[in-house]
Specification:
By secondary structure, the protein is mostly helical. It is about 90% helix and about 0% strand.
Length: about 120
């Protein structure tokens, strides 16, 4: 009886933490996709507006990265860091066509991270 109670408590803790992880990752990914969508729209604006929006995306990721490193593989955070650097390089050189490609890659990457964080049989097995 005691072993069943301990096992139940442990499973409850695991389920709670898994749910918390999914919500945290979902919140960060949604925020980053929203910011990247805004940046995508700003690419037609003047250089200063584009740079400011890109810096906001960068600063937001810098804040979120600390949380994301707890919940997702480091390969994913490293990949986002590399793509962020590429995006900033494109914007600094005013290569907005390439910047648009990188923005869309980042949005797809965050959508995939978000999808992987949801609890389901596909993610368990």
């Amino acid at each position: 009886m005691r072993k069943m109670l301990v096992a139940g408590i442990i499973l409850g803790i695991i389920a709670f933490s898994w749910g918390y992880e999914g919500r945290a990752v979902d919140r960060v990914c949604t925020d980053m996709i929203t910011r990247l969508t805004l940046l995508e729209q700003y690419l037609t604006q003047d250089r200063q507006t584009v740079m400011r929006a890109a810096q906001e995306v960068n600063e937001s990721w810098d804040e979120h990265e600390k949380v994301m490193e707890i919940f997702i593989p480091h390969d994913d955070t490293d990949s986002v860091n590399i793509q962020q650097a590429s995006l900033m390089g494109c914007i600094e050189t005013e290569n907005y066509n390439r910047a648009l490609i990188v923005i869309r890659e980042l949005k797809a990457h965050f959508a995939e991270i978000q999808k992987k964080s949801h609890v389901g049989l596909k993610n368990i097995f």
